Every structure is written in C-alpha cells, then in structure tokens.
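Re-run with default settings, no changes from the original entry. Doing this only to confirm the output is reproducible before filing.
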Amino acid sequence: MRIGFVGLGRMGANMVRRLLRDGHEVVAYNRTPEKTKEIAGEGATAAFSIAELVDSLEKPRAVWIMVPAGDATEAQIEELLEHLEAGDTIIDGGNTNFHDDQRRQRDLAAKDINYVDAGTSGGIWGLQVGYCLMVGGEKEAVEPLEPIFTSLAPEGGYLHVGGPGAGHYVKMVHNGIEYGLMQAYAEGFEIMHASSYELDLAGISELWMQGSVVRSWLLELAARAFKANGADLEHIKGYVEDSGEGRWTVQEAIDHDVPAPVITLSLLTRFRSRQDDSYGAKVLAALRNEFGGHAVKTE
C-alpha cells in the first residue's frame, strides 16, 4: 500500500521503517529536510513540501500525521486540506484529545474527507516489537487502511475499537493506567532503596520478571534503567512531565463520577516532582510548629 507520512521524529521515523520493511511504499515529509533525506536513503520517497507529498500519492490518498498533539496537528491538518480531495483520508497517530477527534471528523466529513484516529503505543521500541494500535473512526474509513495497521502492529496488536475519537479515548485511558503502574513501581523501589539491606534493584527487577504477578514491560525497563544508571540513579533528576493524557483521564473520571484515586494521585505526584521546594509542605511545617511546637527546619 502507498501512504503519505508526516512527522519523522523518534516514533514516526521508526514507523516508516517498519512499513518499508513490510513492503509498503511511503512518501515521507518532515519539517526538517535532513530527516526526510535520511529516511529517503532507507527506501522512502522524499517529499519536501505537503503539496509534493500529496501529488506523489495515488487517489484516494491516505496521509498519516505523527506530530505533537494540539496546535502542531491542527496546523498540519489545515495545510493538508489545501491539497486533499474528497475520498482522501487523514490518520492522526498522535496523542490527541478525543473531543478534538470528534470535531475534526465532523468538519472533514463535510468535505467528504475521512478522518481516522490511531492511538499508538510502543515508543522507541516499536520498530523492533511493533506498535499497539487503538484505532477509531467509521468502518468505511478504517478497513482500507488495515494493511498499514497490521504491518505496524505485532500479531494481535491492532483493534478497531469504535467510532471517531474512540482510538484516542482508549489510548488516553491506557496512559492513565500507565501513570498508576509507574507510580507503584517507583514507590516500591524507593522503599527498597531506603531499606537497611543492600539490595540489587536491577537483579530484583529481573527476578520479578520470572513468573511474578507484577511482571511487565515497564519492569523490564526498570531493570535496564538500574543497570545503566546505578541503583541511586544519581545522574537523573526526579522531574517528571506529563503529556496530557493523565489529566484527560482524571477529568473523564470526574465527568462520569468514576472514582480513580490511584491514577489521580499518580498525576498529582508528577506535579510535585517539578517543585524544587513545596510551598504546601512549608505551610504544613509552619502549622505543626504553631499548634504543637514541633521543630521546623530553616534554610
């Protein structure tokens, strides 16, 4: 199958490589020409403008967008719409809010252009092991693209989960769960790191991968991190960003009166990681001093 691909970052470039490896023809474009030239050297057809990319595709065209969610994706879609025609399809593989998917699908349907949202998980390891694809959109838009989805995914790793926005909705909840899992691992390893025992955290990570109920790919990555950086992780700053999906998951839980304390607290812990000194903790210390005379530490 021939497809256009916009965005050749760490995930995008490897997705193109996986498609090429499976025999697909890919017309690739990136805002930075050097990345386009690099992937062209591996078998893709280079395009140095959106107009050139669209002109290089056969009708009906399919273009996959793999750029940061929000303004960058919106701008890319607007530029594509200057060149696409009725019957063409846009696939958004980024971490878009499902409300935006629903709006876009309605807007594009009015122009007879298909819109498919593809929640994509796999990170930098996707080239090797495949990408888990949670796809949303109308059946008529999704089915012609299945050769692409099945090439990108490992066996059993692609599912058409529902209508427009459903793919990114499922990916949003997936990432909320990921927040909670990561936080649980982080707390467990911190307890062991603080213990009086000299524990081999990398070894324990690998041990738990052998039949334990807590085994997972995240645990494999923990073992890699401890091996690469040492148990103290002294070269890593404990500053943790969030890319939006955790917030959206918490908001969705609130909107539907669903208690989600673990995911919510894991998100709030990420906020705390960005504070050099917590003002809230200062207030707590001051209050304990006022009502109980408890000692406070001063700077």
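The first helix runs from residue 10 to 21. The radius of gyration is 23 Å.
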